[in-house]
Amino acid sequence: MLTQSFADAVLEAEKIIADAPHIQSAQDLAEGYDYLAGSISASLHLAWAYQRDFPYFVQSTGPYTKMGLDNPDALYLHSYLRDDAEYVVTGRRGSTRDLSFQVLNGDYSPVDVPDSLAAFDDRELDIAADGSFELRFGPPRPNSGRQHPPRNYFTLERGSAMLAVREVYSDWATERRGTLRIQRADKLGQAPEPADEALLTKRYGVAGKILLSRLRTFLAFPEWFYLKEPVNTMTAPRRTPGGLASQFSSAGHFDLAPDQAMIVTVPYAGPDVAPYQGIQLGSMWYVSLDYINHQTSLTADQARKDPDGMLRFVIAQADPGVANWLELTGRRRGYVQIRWQRLARDLGPEHGPQVEVVPAASLPDMLPHYEQARLAPGEYAARIAARQAAVAERMLG
């Protein structure tokens, strides 16, 4: 049967979910099966997008196909490449806070993180006054006496396999995404051969491999970068492993009783240092929590800043009545991460978060600017309504 390999992979994937070591409740397992559904959908989508000669950008992860502690503020896109071909990427810059490109030599696996062969943001591009741009990726070009390739040309090193693009929002309500298109330069005006049964059989097999690798990888990933750290702490800012050159992050994992709260205090970096700064929570499946219908993430633009220049976030089960509450949505364990992007300079420990676990009832005394942090009646519901509208518009943009 043509789809047998994928059907077998789905059964194996269900076993991976059911046997996950972190499961402690029926809610944990139900979330796992929901994660599985999104992973099945994404794996089929990605297998059919493996078109290196007639490439197009596919959404790597999204609200319903999550993986890898996806950033609620980012649109993730990627396209597959050959290292011996030239590709033309055209687009129009939107008003989002960051637009970045990364060339990888493969995909994430349960034992390895792909090497980043090139990583840069749109500060390295020539962009026209109307926001339009064209850049090319391809083999080394003869320099004709010049020391570097021409502007907007980026050399594909041997082993280059994927071009990843991130477009990152800070103010969800006002920023708008741009446009992006990729084509192989020598295939313009041509068309691929129609799919036959052999090709479709291969694609279903690839989809199954993507599914299993995706689940195994991102169950192992926290062991590499998170769970070896003490619980209820966060690391000092550091370059994101396998990530962008201009991104730092601070990460940790939490375990909070229903009557506890975690206060995360971090300096507001400001647009001159980090145009994008955001915090998010993730589940033990290493995916973002529901950021559409709950406030489980905040950017510096969305958060309320204290008069002393600090951002203070409260991670708690019950609503503490403050603007910077991050909802646990019924769980006690999970991940927390802060990202700084489009950095003008490196960050040190003094720019990172301080973490304190306190009784939830003591928050009015523990927050130094508690009165300024409080929300008026109905204000929180308005915040959620704004999130729902902004994500809906973003995904259709």
Structural class assignment: alpha+beta
Question: Which radius of gyration do the C-alpha atoms yield?
Answer: 22 Å
Going across the biggest sheet, name each strand in turn: 1-2-8-4-5
| Strand-residue proportion | 25-35%
Given as residue ranges, the uncertain stretches (5+ residues, pLDDT < 50) are none
Overall pLDDT confidence? 93
Number of helical segments with 4 or more residues: 6
Alpha carbon gap, first and last residue: 39 Å
Question: What would you note in describing this structure?
Answer:
The chain is of the alpha+beta class and 397 residues long. The protein contains six helices and 18 strands. The protein has helices spanning 4-18, 26-48, 197-225, 363-366, 370-373, 379-396, and strands spanning 58-61, 74-80, 87-92, 98-104, 116-121, 132-138, 153-155, 162-168, 179-184, 238-239, 247-255, 260-267, 276-282, 297-299, 310-316, 325-327, 333-341, 354-359. Strands 1-2-8-4-5 form a five-stranded antiparallel beta sheet. A five-stranded antiparallel beta sheet has the order 10-11-17-13-14, with no helix packed on it. β10 and β11 (247-255) form a beta hairpin. The chain is globular and about 65 Å long. 37% of the residues are buried.
Summarize this structure as a short list of keywords or feature phrases:
27% strand, 397 residues, globular, five-stranded antiparallel β-sheet, single chain
Question: What's the short story on this structure?
Answer:
With 397 residues, the chain is α+β, with helices and mostly antiparallel strands. The chain has six helices and 18 strands. Helix 1 (4-18) runs antiparallel to helix 2 and helix 1 runs parallel beside helix 3 (197-225).
